[in-house]
Design a protein that fits this description.
By secondary structure, this protein is mostly helical. The chain is 70% helix and 1% strand. The chain has a two-stranded antiparallel sheet with strand order 1-2.
């Protein structure tokens, strides 16, 4: 039951009992140590899994580091050197991983007798500072409820960490290693100098500094929470004004046809609006984010110094060699993770370096209204009382007013302190930039060729000014920043151009008019709806089931329809959002997966659906009869079966005199032409889809929405140009163009 240590100790005691010159009472006193040895052996046995826990901590630290590096790479690739947060944001998953990564400073019991053990423990605090500084701008990407929840969760985690570290500082756990050094060297307490005392407690002192940095970062999070609530309202109101103005300009274009050039201009305008009014960009340019970058830079001093000393072999804790792995992993995370916060210190240079801008940065005691406006609104709003007593209402209202007044004063103090810290890096960079500007000015004076912008470039810049949305009206975006924004949207479009749907293009080029859909008009009752995607899937199912058609031809049609359904679905999702159309789209998606992947139609193998039939008429009749019988069996399949029944019946009726003479090749060609016509008809709505996709009311989704619109424009430019050149839109209202049944009605009875 005991371990080898206890067994060996008892053997020694038994051997001592054989010596007559050793007093028995002394030997008996030694037996009292059995319990201590037993407990020590048990503790050693219980601590054996600590090595694996250390590896688990290292893996969690690696995940956090990779997420920060992913944001770093994302910012570089998108030429956003203020590094927006896309992958590393505070949420339930990331906070859980962070909690594992900072387990070492949470550990209140395990001693850290080695220097690497203490280094890794204190370095985890630096790692936490780095992660908090990285995630700060991501608060602006959340809605109000999610923002509050994540702030509270992070606050609980940080406060728990701070309390645990303070306990360890108080108990001396962080100074145990150096106390042992003093004991070994037999230095008397009276002979210990203040320097020796500070040296012995240096880890506790460093941990105290990190506690202060963590609390400062937590305060910046709380202040950012208050500010983001108001800045979103300001930016959203300015965006809506610009959107209304842009929408009026677009109305004239919607009466005609949107060309690719007009769409490019439209996407570019909304790209600028979404980029400059991005709450994450505004947060990254704020003084609070710059201050967090300065704090992050300060937190890297200790890990760099300890790595410089290079004492990486002295690990003696129960975590064993995993402490070294944790130390190295988190050191890499601190170094790489500090890059983004440091660059954000200079994000404010995205704006024009005007005199007003300079004065606003120098006047650190000026606190703009948006920093405290939300608190002021809460202060002057009336509370919803659940008590009936008048005195209680007065006490509650006055108490809330006093508390909010204190919060407003504290918010102002924090903003002023952050502006002071933010001015440190900006001050040096401004000097360098003005030095470079002066050098370029002198060079231009003595040069025969100037580098002045052309009148066309100046006019273009002025035209785009109305789409630039800034939090402060007297601050202008720098011309280089605007050029970078416009260049980024052009790069997205150009990159998307390389991924155009070639198979779909070849099929659409076969379309000669908008008459294909009229040829497959089902015999339908008045209240029966249909949609583009389900009609396409139904026709494609019949086409690919023809056995005499070569496999390569059928596969090419499958690929074309598959590419086309992506854009057809976008059209339907944009314009047809009612429950009936949603259910039909789901049925079409499920049916197409069955046809394309499993070569089945509603559970029936296409090759085995009619194994004995040979002619095109027999295949159509087989689909018709199967669909007719299926409409009464399973309610969920009624939509697909009913459309198949009506489609095949219509085709048979349209050929009724010559149907026996139609070959499979002719039927396949006719079906392919119908599919091409329907695709071309539906995709005439792509310009409107792109224009509508540029705008969304949700501020957190605007950048993603306009990015999707730019990518869609790049992918479909050739399709749009082809449709514009070869096809004339019918006289339908704009809201009727996306609806298949309106096209059918028009093609049955055209009107001028």
């Amino acid at each position: 039951m005991g371990s080898n240590s206890l067994f060996e100790y008892n053997q020694i005691l038994n051997q001592l009992k054989t010596y007559t010159n050793i007093p028995q009472h002394l030997i008996s006193s030694f037996t009292h140590f059995n319990l201590l040895i037993y407990r020590s052996d048990q503790q050693n046995r219980f601590s054996q899994p600590m090595l694996w826990i250390g590896i688990y901590i290292a893996l969690a630290s690696l995940l956090c580091t990779l997420a920060m590096v992913a944001d770093l790479v994302h910012g570089i690739r998108n030429r956003k050197l203020w590094f927006p947060c896309k992958y590393f944001t505070p949420n339930a998953a990331s906070l859980s991983v962070i909690a594992v990564a900072i387990k070492l400073p949470m550990d209140l019991n395990n001693s850290m007798p080695g220097q690497v053990d203490l280094d890794a423990k204190v370095e985890s605090l630096a790692f936490m500072c780095t992660m908090m500084a990285n995630m700060l701008p991501s608060l602006a990407t959340m809605d109000n409820k999610e923002l509050l929840t994540n702030i509270i969760a992070l606050g609980v985690l940080v406060i728990t960490l701070v309390v645990n570290v303070c306990m360890q500082i108080n108990t001396g756990l962080l100074s145990l290693y150096h106390h042992e050094e003093l004991l070994v060297t037999n230095v008397e307490a009276k002979d210990r100098s203040p320097y020796m005392y500070a040296y012995a407690h240096r880890y506790g002192i460093v941990a105290t500094i990190y506690v202060g940095l963590l609390l400062m970062l937590l305060i910046t999070y709380a202040c950012s929470f208050i500010t983001i609530l108001k800045t979103k309202q300001i930016l959203n109101s300015k965006y809506q004004v610009a959107h209304e103005a842009n929408l009026k300009d677009l109305q004239s274009d919607l009466t005609g046809r949107l060309t690719v050039e007009k769409l490019k201009q439209h996407v570019r305008n909304y790209w600028i609006m979404a980029g400059t009014s991005s709450s994450q960009f505004v947060t990254a340019c704020s003084a609070i984010t710059s201050a967090s970058g300065v704090i992050c830079a300060c937190s890297t001093v200790f890990p760099v110094y300890m790595m410089y000393l290079g004492a990486l072999r002295d690990y003696k804790s129960d975590y064993k060699w995993s402490m070294l792995v944790i130390f190295i992993t988190q050191f890499i995370g601190v170094i790489l993770g500090s890059i983004a916060p440091l660059f954000r210190c200079f994000a404010d240079l995205s704006f024009s370096l005007s005199i007003k801008w300079m004065w606003n940065r120098i006047n650190v005691f000026k606190v703009e209204s948006y920093w405290t406006q939300k608190l002021c609104d809460w202060k002057h709003s009336s509370l919803a009382f659940s008590v009936s007593s008048r005195k209680s209402k007065i006490v509650i209202q006055n108490s809330s007013t006093v508390i909010l007044s204190i919060c407003i004063a504290f918010q102002k103090m924090v903003v002023v302190a952050c502006k002071m810290m933010a001015f440190i890096p900006i001050f040096f960079v401004i000097g360098v930039l003005y030095g470079i500007r002066g050098w370029k000015g002198m060079k231009a004076m003595f040069s025969s060729e100037g580098t002045h912008a052309t009148p066309g470039q100046i006019e273009k810049f002025k035209d785009l000014q109305c789409y630039i949305l800034t939090l402060e009206d007297d601050i202008e975006l720098a011309e280089r920043t605007l050029k970078g924004i416009t260049k980024s949207v052009n790069l997205v479009i150009q990159k998307a151009e390389k991924h155009q749907p070639n198979n779909l293009m070849k099929l659409i080029e076969e379309c000669s008019s908008f008459k294909g859909d009229r040829d497959v008009t089902p015999l339908q009752v008045e209240d029966h709806l249909s949609c583009w995607s389900l009609t396409l899937v139904t026709l494609a199912t019949v086409a690919v089931s023809l056995p005499n058609i070569p496999k390569e031809t059928r596969d090419r049609l499958l690929s074309s329809v598959s590419e086309g359904l992506v854009y057809v679905t976008l059209v339907e999702e944009t314009f047809n959002a009612s429950n009936e159309y949603v259910s039909m789209r789901k049925a079409a998606k499920s049916l197409w997966l069955e046809v394309e992947v499993y070569h089945k139609w509603l559970g029936n193998k296409l090759r085995k659906l009619a194994p004995q039939v040979k002619t095109a008429k027999q295949i159509l009749e087989c689909f018709r009869d199967t669909a007719e019988n299926m409409t009464t069996e399973v309610e969920s399949l009624n939509v697909c079966a009913n459309l198949m029944f009506r489609t095949t019946k219509t085709i048979l009726f349209s050929y009724h005199a010559t149907i026996d003479k139609i070959s499979q090749e002719e039927l396949f060609g006719k079906l392919s032409s119908m599919i091409a016509d329907i695709l071309a008809t539906c995709l005439t709505n792509l310009p409107q889809v792109i224009a509508m996709k540029c705008h969304t009311d949700v501020i957190e989704k605007r950048e993603a929405s306009v990015h999707a619109a730019a990518r869609l424009l790049g992918e479909t430019m050739q399709i749009i140009n082809t449709l514009l050149q070869h096809h004339q839109l019918p006289s339908l209202n704009t809201d009727e163009l996306p609806i298949i049944d309106k096209w059918r009605a028009y093609l049955k009875h055209p009107f001028p």
